[in-house]
Amino acid sequence: MPFFLFVVGVSISLALKKVSSKPLATKKVILRTIKLFLLGLVLQGGYFHGRHDLTYGIDVGKIRLMGVLQRISIGYLFAAMSEIWLVDSITVDSPMTFVKKYYIQWMIAFLFCTFYICLLYGLYVPDWEFEVPSTNLFGYEFVGLIDRFFLGEHHLYQHPVYRRTKQCSVNSPDYGPLPPSSPGWCLAPFDPEGILSSLMAAITCFLGLQFGHILVHFKGHMQRLCLWSVYSFIILFSGYVFELLGIPFCKPLYTLSYMCITAGASGLALTIIFYIVDVKHFRKPTMILQWMGMNALIIYALAACDLFPAAIQGFYLGSPENNMVDGTESLFQVMLHSKKWGTLVFVIVEILFWGLVAGFLHSKGIYARL
Questions:
Q1: pTM for this structure?
Q2: Cα separation of 213 and 211, whole Å?
């Protein structure tokens, strides 16, 4: 997701480099944000149960309110609104005018980071009680406190990643039954795409926005590559420094170190791809990436949200386990004599399959847009 958030910021800088009507542009941004948020609510709210479950439906009182698309919509909203309303109208003809044009955006990003860090180290988090049959659970994370207060316990993600740890699963590092001596917090809900962490994730969009500004205002390829490389390494190095200072590299909390390291890596990836495609003109090896980018929404809904695999699994022989999806994955595992390597090959084949599907949709001029 950090790479996608970064690219969203780059795209915003290109789409909004000339805004003829700020109110009209604001209206379009708000509408797109709402549509993206609602789509995420439908896809990841719990209505679709994914692979290995042929049922569907969700108790509205327990629908998950946050998710990947919801987080992207929040980052898109903040970055787009700042691009519309917080950019000076001066012409960029030097590094100094570049700073003057966008310094308010940098200040907003800095304030977001400061607000997050202050809550991370300054907010008092009392013990909280989560009741399930015969068990009382206690949690202590401040991000969870914010989500529980604003969203409610029943609207959070019910299968957090820590349920795959040795303390919480006999099948660790996979999900599984609880060990006999498991701590109470193993069953506590936690949303990795919660409110506060999504606010921090929006900073990734802001950083992508600045990389897009370099693309817009600096026309020389080598100049762009040099600036992107320098900024990427600075951001990447800052992330490692923050980690050494005690801020952990943690995706579920979207910590400052995680944001900097992933944003720096995203900047380097953009630099490398730009060099290959736009400088050296090696376009054919990256065509599949282009096709998938043109129809990212369709691929995400059908593949990442398991809509297509779940539909295929509806056709089975004898029992639901005997279906084409699970059968293909099991075949690779048997061929490679390894469950892990077989699953890896299955995922790679799945990615190639969806790349070809995206290429077919592109050849027919079929695209999904919000």
A1: 0.88
A2: 5
